[in-house]
Write a structure and sequence with these properties.
Layout lengths: L1 E10 L6 H12 L11 E9 L3 H16 L5 E10 L5
Antiparallel strand pairs: 1-2, 1-3
């Protein structure tokens, strides 16, 4: 069975986010004065073959631990894991 997993990788709260500061300042210059802060992360979508949703989620978590994030400065969240529609 094939599953689609959506993962968000973001800098840990204690890590400075220079890209987020640039986004915040750019939005302020465009007139969005209410923007207090911005943090920039990565959205990753994966298609994974697995026997179950639980197995797919565990596999994606291992991918995050081993490659998709830097454990020193980044956290990750597996947002969704859903089965894809079977091909007709």
């Amino acid at each position: 069975m094939t599953f689609v997993a959506e993962v968000t990788v973001q800098l840990k709260p204690v890590v400075n986010d220079p890209q987020g500061l640039v986004v915040r300042d750019g939005l302020r210059r465009l007139g969005f004065s209410g923007v207090r802060s911005a943090r920039v992360g990565k959205h990753i979508e994966l298609e994974v073959d697995a026997a179950s949703e639980t197995e797919a989620r565990e596999s994606v978590a291992q991918m995050c631990e081993r490659l998709l994030r830097n454990p020193v400065i980044e956290d990750y969240t597996v947002n969704t894991v859903r089965a894809t529609a079977p091909a007709r």
